[in-house]
Write a structure and sequence with these properties.
- By secondary structure, the protein is of the alpha/beta class.
- It folds into 2 domains: 231 residues, 3-Layer(aba) Sandwich (Rossmann fold), CATH 3.40.50.300; 105 residues, Udp-n-acetylmuramoylalanyl-d-glutamate--2,6- Diaminopimelate Ligase, Chain: A, domain 1, CATH 3.40.1390.20.
- The chain contains 15 helices and 13 strands.
- The strands form 3 sheets. The chain has a 6-stranded parallel β-sheet, sandwiched between helices. Strands 9-13-12-11-10 form a 5-stranded mixed β-sheet, with helices on both faces. Strands 3-4 form a two-stranded parallel ribbon.
- Helix 1 crosses helix 14 and helix 10 runs parallel beside helix 11.
- The radius of gyration is 22 Å and the shape is globular.
- The mean pLDDT is 91.
Amino acid sequence: MKNLYIMGTPASGKTALALGLAQKFKKEGLRVAYFKPIGNPSPGRERVDEDAVLMREVLGMDTPLELMVPRMAGPSYLSGNGCKDALNQVRYAYQGIAADSDVVIIGGAIYPYAYAGCGLDDVTLAKELAAPVLLVVNIENDFSLDQTLFFNRSLAAAGVNLLGNVFNNIPRPLLAKTEGIYQPILEKQGYKVLGIIPRRPEIASPTVEEYYEVLGGEILAGGDNLDRLVEDVVIGAMTADSALTYLRRSADKAVILGGDRADMALAALETSTAVLILTGGLYPDVKVIARAQEKNVPLILVHYDTYTTVEKINHLTRRLKPGNTTAIQVALENVEKYCQWQTIVEAMR
């Protein structure tokens, strides 16, 4: 039985890679299970880890979620029982998961350092569970490469078996630089690159509904169109006269502006807009509501100011769900097309 630990920073696409690899391992005849030592509770009453819900469904596991995710992360996790029996709890859960499996895919925490206070950060757990690591990397700029090098060196210094790096969800403008500059730098320093996956909206772009779940507020129009994908975010801070050219540059975007900016809102609705988010709790002009209804564009009124609204959605990413067959298929395609999956599978045999 082999383990594979998939770790990375928030929004790097750990879940999508785990999902794709799990399906590929199954196609190769391996019995696959999923384990996430430190979960991230979903918003709402249920407070379950949505990655575990997804993987449980896709892999056909009948394991209780409490066993798949023995601990939950939170900003006050050291309160109450804190670290009491934390490591033993993880060990016990892992043994139950691994019993009838050829491969256990271990999902990293939202942050690699989460639960370090209990000795359950990703690096420590990878060593504890003797799991080779795939580091999932999201590139925004050159500092992203610096961060990747830092993580690679830290894993090597800790004695963790680093299987390789996967650049994931890479914007098209950065693909050539990733292949021509970032990859050679990593490989020159002795670190493997096992995949470069371009950004695909079907699996990377959040839906309007996910924006609404984070922001709350009131849906004034387009309530039956919340499954639209949001590929960009535009802040409506310019004048209406200069806005139209700027707004036309982005397709399927979320436009965020004050509720009193009727001129700007109407201009945005004449371009490819996935959702219009009005801030400050300011009810818009009826013309804006009427035009949004005509266009069937979701119109959401929130009570936060524009700055707070932008901050709350800053790290919003697509949450993959069991019923999203397109995204599940895309995750597999990404592994088969853009990753050295043969190398990864061989390491699991």
